[in-house]
Automatic annotation (TrEMBL):
EC numbers on record: 2.7.1.156, 2.7.7.62
Protein family according to the UniProt entry: Belongs to the CobU/CobP family.
Species assigned in the record: Calothrix parietina FACHB-288
Cross-referenced InterPro entries: CobU/CobP (IPR003203), P-loop_NTPase (IPR027417)
Function: Catalyzes ATP-dependent phosphorylation of adenosylcobinamide and addition of GMP to adenosylcobinamide phosphate.
Stated name of the protein: Adenosylcobinamide kinase
Keywords, in A-Z order: ATP-binding, Cobalamin biosynthesis, GTP-binding, Kinase, Nucleotide-binding, Nucleotidyltransferase, Transferase
PANTHER family attached to this UniProt entry: BIFUNCTIONAL ADENOSYLCOBALAMIN BIOSYNTHESIS PROTEIN COBU (PTHR34848:SF1), PTHR34848
Amino acid sequence: MGKVILVTGPARSGKSEWAENLAMHSQKVVVYVATAAEYPGDEEWQKRIQAHQNRRPQDWLTLSVPMELSATLAAATPNTCLLVDSLGTWVANFLEEDKISWDNKIAELLETVQLVAADMIFVAEEVGWGLVPAYPSGRLFRDRLGSLVRQLAILCDTVYLVTGGHVLNLSTLGTPLPPPRE
C-alpha cells in the first residue's frame, strides 16, 4: 500500500491547495483525479473548475472520474501520486444509490485503497458541523460523507484538518476512534 493522506475541512478553507502542495512535494508523477462532472451551462461551476485547473502545474495529468473512482485508483502505478478532489463531490454523484449498492461501493473503495501501491491524497469536505439538513437528501449526503471520511481516515497514514487558514495534523494531535459499529 502506498502512502494515504486525507485532507479535510470546511468550504473555502484551503484544503485543495494544501493537498496540491503535498502532491507537488511527493517526488512522484501527479495525477489529479477530478470527481466533479462539468456542467457547461453552469457558469459559476465552470469558474470553480477553472480556478482549480489554473492552480495546478501543467505537467499534472487530470482525469475526470465522477463515478469509477475505485477502478481509477486500482490502475495507478507505484511511481504515481493520485490527488482525489473531492470525496464530497463523488458522494453526491451517488445519492440516488440505495443503501446496499452504496455500502458495496464504499467497501470496494476502502478495499482498493488498501491494495494500491501508488500514493493517494484524498480531499473531503466536513459537512456535519452545522445544522441538520432540512431535507432527506441533505441528511443522506451528510451521513454518507461523514461515514466515508471516518472509515477512510482509519486507513490513512496522515489526516489533516484545514480550517481558518491553518493546517492541523490530526494524526499527531489526536487519537483515532475505532471503526464505526453499524
